[in-house]
Design brief:
The structure holds two protein chains of two kinds.
Chain A (H helix, E strand, L loop, with lengths): L7 H20 E5 L3 E9 L2 E4 L2 E8 L2 E4 L4 E8 L1 E4 L2 E3 L2 E3 L2 E4 L4 E3 L2 E2 L2 E4 L4 E3 L2 E2 L9 H13 L3 H5 L1
Parallel strand pairs in A: 1-3, 2-4, 3-5, 4-6, 5-7, 6-8, 6-9, 7-10, 8-11, 9-12, 10-13, 11-14, 12-15
Chain B lengths: L1 E5 L6 H17 L4 E4 L6 H10 L4 E6 L1 H11 L5 E6 L6 H5 L7 H7 L2 E9 L2 E3 L2 E7 L1 E5 L3 E5 L3 E6 L24 E11 L3 E4 L3 E5 L1 E14 L2 E20 L7
Parallel strand pairs in B: 1-2, 1-3, 3-4, 4-15
Antiparallel strand pairs in B: 5-6, 5-15, 7-10, 7-14, 8-9, 8-14, 10-11, 11-12, 11-13, 14-15
Helix pairs in contact in B: 1-5, 2-3
Classes of the chains: A alpha/beta, B alpha+beta.
Chain lengths: ~160, ~250
């Protein structure tokens, strides 16, 4: 029984799965491997997978995947994203952002749809479209006080 | 008129039956032509240029990846249509071009389905299959926008027509490079120290690009289409639609 041959249909299924995996790998256009450092304006027309370190800015119109252990110290612009590593910088995502349990994000996020898994760490504002003109009054008051702060001290006394 | 350039290794007895069968099939299709056998002392560009002057319209390369690379890297600028008859081991480019190995390739040649292929340009010469930089202390600058570096040595492989394989596991996916996608693909594999003397390859990084520069802290070796040279700075570009080639229907682009 140890040397039993695998049935033909199973072989065909396996080869199909392998082909699918190969096709999936082909969709990934840019991969930043671990122990590789990228510096500068990093942009791609296709999907990006980051497993190493990126500093500067990241831009793609398609999917960005930040793997566990990866570090991005840059402003990010992407079509959609999945973060499992560390991002220090503002993120502007057109469609969906997924933060997994191991994600650590320091910066503001502008996104249409967000999914945050429990355990993810986030420090920053989240801005989502659809609530324009419904900002709470407190924030507007804060803004006015800040505006006054910038005025010279004499004008405030008057 | 067809001109056939045979690689030297096709003289071996084990290939004689395949070569004869191919010649018979080519005669059947009415596309037989002049046969020239290459050796180390023949300049492919000179031969192709001479044959074009004599009226050759199609130059067919018979051999493997090495033959294909050697001839096309020198004669990419020639004004003719190229064909390929893959024979023997080491034929990975033929698969990308959709040309079956052996006698069946004659049928593809007779159909004359033509495509324009991109080629790579490195320090004032062309390469069609692959460019390889063995592990060295280098930095890579892409499209003058971003720089890629590693802590220690790094290996670089730039693929045009020849697929690049790396085996992290038994079921590692095989990457197929599309020669028509308007970009070259660079694979970077950093080396990290393992133990006292040993080195270990890290997972590769993949960057599609149109222009890149490899800068070394010291001279490093560059192997492009079988030709090895020592460089300190290498500029690699993409030359679009440079080669007219007869391809098969099952091509990967």
């Amino acid at each position: 029984m140890i040397f039993q041959r695998t049935p033909k249909y199973q072989e065909a299924e396996e080869s199909f799965q392998n082909e699918e995996a190969a096709a999936g790998a082909d969709n990934v256009e840019t991969v930043v491997g671990p122990s590789v450092n990228v510096e500068g304006d990093f942009s791609s027309e296709g999907n990006i997978v980051v497993k190493g370190t990126v500093a500067g800015s990241v831009h793609t119109s398609k999917h960005l995947s930040v793997e566990e252990g990866a570090k991005i110290m840059a402003n990010v612009k992407a079509g959609s994203a999945r973060v499992a590593g560390e991002v220090k910088g503002n993120m502007k995502i057109k469609e969906t952002l997924e933060l997994t349990a191991s994600a650590r994000v320091l910066g503001d996020i502008e996104v249409k749809t967000i999914q945050i898994e429990s355990g993810a760490l986030l420090y920053g504002r989240i801005i989502m479209p659809g609530l324009e003109g419904m900002e709470p009054k407190t924030s507007r008051q804060k803004y006015t006080t800040r505006k006054n702060d910038s005025l010279p001290a004499e004008s405030l006394l008057n | 008129m067809y001109v056939y350039l045979y690689d030297n290794f096709l003289r071996k007895d084990k290939f004689s039956s395949t070569v004869k069968a191919m010649e018979v099939r080519l005669t059947d299709y009415g596309i037989a032509g002049k046969i020239l056998r290459l050796n180390n002392y023949i300049d492919a560009k000179q031969v192709v240029d001479d044959e074009i002057k004599r009226g050759a319209k199609t130059v067919v390369i018979a051999g493997n990846d090495a033959t294909f690379g050697q001839i096309l890297s020198r004669s990419a600028t020639c004004d003719c249509i190229f064909g390929f008859l893959p024979v023997g081991p080491g034929n990975t480019i033929a698969e990308v071009l959709g040309i079956p190995a052996g006698v069946e390739a004659c049928a593809v040649l007779s159909r004359r389905l033509k495509e324009r292929l991109d080629v790579g340009w490195v320090n004032s010469r062309y390469f069609v299959s692959q460019l390889h930089v063995p592990p060295a202390k280098i930095e890579v600058i892409y499209d003058e926008k971003f720089k890629v570096s590693s802590v220690d040595k790094m290996e670089v492989v730039v693929c045009n027509l020849q697929p690049y394989f790396w085996q992290d596991g038994k079921n590692a996916p095989r990457r197929v490079v599309h020669p028509q996608d308007g970009k070259l693909e660079a694979f970077l594999r950093p080396l990290t120290k393992k133990g006292w003397w040993g080195y270990k390859y890290e997972e590769p990084s993949v960057f599609p690009f149109e222009e890149m520069e490899i800068v070394g802290r010291e001279a490093f070796a560059v192997r492009a289409d079988g030709k090895v040279s020592k460089e300190v700075k290498v500029k690699i570009k993409l030359a679009r639609n440079k080669v007219r080639m007869i391809v098969g229907r099952e091509r990967k682009f």
